[in-house]
Amino acid sequence: MIAFGPISSRRLGLSLGINNIVSHKVCSYNCVYCQVGNTKHKSAERQIFYEPSILVNTIKDHLKKLNSNHIPDYLTFVANGEPTLDINLGKEIRLLKKLNIPVAVISNASLIHHPEVQEDLMEADWISLKVDTVSESAWERINRPVREIDLNEILQGLIVFSALYKGELHTETMLIKDYNDSHGQLKDTASFISLLKPQKAYLSIPTRPPALKEVKAVPEEKIAEAWQIYQQEGINTELLTGFEETNTGFTGNAFEDILNITAVHPLRDDTMNELLKQDKADNNVVKSLIKQGLIKKSTYNGKTYYVRKYHF
């Protein structure tokens, strides 16, 4: 399947997915948390998967079937594998942009050090690049990369690309219990991401069945800690935890506001008090959400935060 959706995405609004990799997963990584499962064919060699005309015409046909309420905000390369393995990616992006719909690419960044990959990605309007860790041992354990790639080359490629890219650049880090969640690792990863100056850095957790059953999401306290560390590095940070169509702000419904905002980032107690005031509510709302197991209190650096409680 080349085209799917569109589906609602908090990052991209209404996103029409593009799978530019053949049905059997081809990827440079075999991430322990991958929701697609184990990599069928691990490779770092770019190749032809579809002729650009076939891929683009399939997208055009798919768009024709949509009613006016479902015209996507983005055409998004989010493949069954790593989209930059497609040697025709740049050509496909250029052709798709003629449809006057912005194009996004969600990549694991494993080939970002190659000039031709950087050139292809320059064509996209919006890019998300994965940075799960900057520790080589953790990288090998989490991402289980193909032998031909080197983490230091990837990190240098990220720095070079981020300095040249003119579109919207985002990063994504998957937080996994006992893999990359130590305080030192979180600080090192945040320090590196700050060099890239992304418009936004997303912190995510496994919310779907992972490739390895042993993989677990970090506890809520670690999510709050990670978010605070990224904030201290001056990074615009948001949680990406599987909750879509999240609207933040004061709507007059304190229950929904608290759940929506804590799905994006932890609420500090002073912010919580302001939210309750704006929504003309009191602390009984917070007590009720805690009792229902929907949020929980967490303390970090002497500050009290309210974080979304997740059930896996």
Describe the structure.
- The protein is α/β, with parallel strands linked by helices.
- It folds into two domains: 238 residues, TIM Barrel (Alpha-Beta Barrel), CATH 3.20.20.70; 55 residues, Orthogonal Bundle (Arc Repressor Mutant, subunit A).
- Helix content is 33%, strand content 20%.
- It is built from ten helices and 13 strands.
- The protein has an eight-stranded mixed sheet with strand order 1-2-5-6-7-8-9-10.
- Strand 5, helix 2 and strand 6 form a beta-alpha-beta unit.
- Helix 1 packs parallel to helix 2.
- 43% of the residues are buried.
- About 2% of the residues have low confidence.
CATH architecture of the largest domain: Alpha-Beta Barrel
Q: What Rg do the Cα atoms give?
A: 20 Å
Straight-line distance between termini: 29 Å
Examine the coordinates and then state which fold CATH places here, giving the name of the CATH topology of the largest domain.
TIM Barrel
Decide which structural class fits the backbone. Answer: alpha/beta
Number of strands: 13
What count of helical segments does DSSP give? 10
- Domain count, please report it: 2
